[in-house]
Amino acid sequence: MKRGKKKKDNFFGKHYSLVWKYVKECKNYILFTTLLILFSTLIALFYQPSEVVEVIEKFLQNLLEKTAHLNMWQMIVFILDNNLKSSFFSMLAGFFFGVFPILAAFANGYILGFVAEKSVQVHGIWVLLRLVPHGIFELPAAILALALGIRLGFFWFSKDIKKEFLKRLQESLRVFLFIILPLLVIAAIIEGVLIFILPDF
Question: Of 103, 100, 105, 95, which Cα lies nearest the Cα of 153?
Fold first, then answer.
């Protein structure tokens, strides 16, 4: 029994050690992604062209229609499925020189700023506090996935392209499994529960 537990501890200990090592290697990409999201969020607060507003409103309306009749557990599954697909695709799509995750980071930041600004107009500044419980898990997961995608795309500039791509892909998948996935699970549960507990969440 003790031997099995020791092997299990060694398994997780080994992988988490490798995960945090790679996350440290990605710190500049994480910083860049964070700043890009903050920048686009600020832009959304002051600049909202009608064409962009129309696209975002259609996107949000479509999202509301899809979730209108879901119960709490269905909502949790929907949120988790949506966030997992988005994060995983953004990470892998970085293959093309990191272009897609860069654009996705800007778009996500802009939508975040747009929704925050409209929510404050309707419900007041304190409505933003409702984003904190799940946001402290979901936002870091999204930033990390996007940063991994950007770093993945820069393998093209390495001496050994194939070797570097496989290395970055393997490490990215490890980080996704051991950090991003758990964060998104927690975030989905919190958000799904809050939607049914708090009115107009």
Answer: 95
